[in-house]
Amino acid sequence: AQSVTQLDSQVPVFEEAPVELRCNYSSSVSVYLFWYVQYPNQGLQLLLKYLSGSTLVESINGFEAEFNKSQTSFHLRKPSVHISDTAEYFCAVSDRGDKLIFGTGTRLQVFP
Amino acid sequence: KAGVTQTPRYLIKTRGQQVTLSCSPISGHRSVSWYQQTPGQGLQFLFEYFSETQRNKGNFPGRFSGRQFSNSRSEMNVSTLELGDSALYLCASSREAGAQYFGPGTRLTVL
Fold first, then answer.
1. Cβ atoms within 10 A of the Cβ of B2, count?
2. Cα(B103)–Cα(B89) distance, rounded to whole angstroms?
């Protein structure tokens, strides 16, 4: 069975500092990997995805994640965070893109 | 292109009642999935529909059901509501395979 582990439930950082949100997955088959962001009282927004090809994927707002098959990881990074990045971030895995298995989420809190 | 829409956004029901939630996918997306989000259990997969057929189902009791129409719009129904059914219900749509795009959710409160 597939599973996702997000070890950090909360990550506090100061504005303009770098951040890494960790995600490890477990799966016996090839996977698709995703990061979603959720702002208060909203649904999930797709941040970035790995389906195939380059193991480094980037979003339009400066986030990037690298698929590491040997370490079964898909950590999310941003070199310089903004106050507006404060939100809940979810890592998810799927073997065919239909049923998503989510991690428990990481609350990123950016302080001025 | 319009995103995924869900109606209603908020709903209050009492125990024992039933409820129907609606989801309209992104135009051209034929797959619709439903998820339940609660503080205790997190995000859990309910079921997925493709071309009016349930293709995948999560580990929820039979009180939770759904369907998809020929225009890809989907509904989910919860019968005999329990207090523990209070949650944010999220709908997502996608093409055949790939990323899922979520709607704003329906916040269900069961009193």
1. 8
2. 9
Q: Are B58 and B44 in contact (CB under 8 A)?
A: yes
Are A72 and A25 spatial neighbours (Cβ–Cβ below 8 Å)? yes
The burial class, CB within 10 Å (0-12 / 13-18 / 19+), for B62 is exposed
CB contact under 8 A, A97 and B58: no
Separation CA B34–CA B89 (nearest Å):
7
Nearest C-alpha of chain B: how many angstroms from A42?
5
Instruction: Give CA separation, B60 vs A104, B36, B104, in Å.
Output: 19, 10, 22
Structure tokens at A26: 């477990």
Write down the pLDDT at residue A39: 94
Whether pLDDT at B97 is above 70? no
| CB within 8 Å: B97 and A44 | no
The predicted structure's pLDDT at residue A87: 97
Strands (E), chain B: 5-7, 10-13, 19-24, 31-38, 42-50, 53-57, 64-68, 74-78, 87-94, 101-102, 106-110
Q: What is the mean pLDDT of residues A34-53?
A: 92
Q: What are phi and psi of A31, to 5 degrees?
A: -130, 160
pLDDT band at A28 (very low <50, low <70, confident <90, very high): confident
